[in-house]
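User: Could you check the structure of this?
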Amino acid sequence: MAKPNKLNTIVSNVYKLPEFMRTKALSTLFGKTVKYTGTTGIKVEELTTNRSVVTLTNKKSVQNHIGSVHAVASILIAESATGYLIGMNISDDCVPVIKTIKADYVKRAKGNMRAEASLTDEQIKLITSSNKGETTVSVTVTDADGKEPILMEMVWAWTPKKR
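Assistant: Sure, the predicted structure tokens are below.
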């Protein structure tokens, strides 16, 4: 495996903190780096090189006109969960870019939302061994009832940073 990038190293250090502090530390880190996620109140519950769990509380500031989490906020947690995973694996001399987002809303969401994303060992090998490429990141978005109100597909690309 390639050497850990800066983000991977920082997240590894967060995991040295007591367990009760990790979600707050990870959420603050990403909320200050990616301001919009901090504004919406996204919580990073878990982040490793192959798995990411992100949650969003159903509160007034992220609700739509019927009181559930807004459609775009649902996409945001899926984009965040998948993007953080790509960020954990790409080389420091590369930049991740979302290429495709597909969202099929199949039922009304109820309550808080959770996005769980994962990468296979093969995907991690591809990402860590090349400075340019793309992959579809698996993500499942569930509501408070454990139902999947939105079916998502996220394709991420990475390319060398311009100097």
